[in-house]
Amino acid sequence: MIGLGARPGQETEWRNFQYYMHYAEGGLMLLVETRFLAFCAIGAHIHTNTFQPQFMFQPQFILHFDFLESQMGNAPFLSGQYFTAADIMIIFPVEIAFAKCEVSHNDYPLLANYLQRMYQRPAFVKAMQRIINIDGQHVGLDDVVRGRPNSVVNAGT
User: Fold this and answer.
1) Residue 1 banded pLDDT, cuts 50, 70, 90
2) 5 neighbors 72 (Cβ within 8 angstroms)
3) How large a percentage of the chain has pLDDT more than 70?
4) For the residues of 7-53, what is the DSSP string, one character each?
5) Do 32 and 101 form a contact (C-beta atoms < 8 A)?
6) Residue 141 scores a pLDDT above 50
7) Residue 102: which of 140, 65, 132, 127 has the closest Cα?
């Protein structure tokens, strides 16, 4: 398990784990949340004609998502061959970016595929089923990857 510390021969995976763990919350999430809030301001009509967040944040989004896309083909998981907490942490900002920040899964197919693989993990499926059992529905996360972020899946489907 990479998250418990480096083992002999896993030093690279340990560095990757540390990097992506902190990158998800310390870098990417701040950018995604800021852009999301800016889009909320547009939806609430709390803007002037000069405030256009889609252009203000675009260069940083391209930089970050191009970087993540480039990392997707190197190994099955962010840290390497092993699933770690870094894979869990990166799901949230990527999911929000696809669903609410006009980041297209067509522009980042490897990242969209990675997210889809995370959704298919048995533990993820089990967690989503628990949400359905409690709430009766959940946002269809697969739909986020397919570009239909506002879909809702009912417990009976």
Assistant:
1) very low
2) no
3) 68
4) -TT-HHHHHHHHHHHHHIIIIIHHHHHHHHHHHHHHHTT---TT--H
5) yes
6) no
7) 65
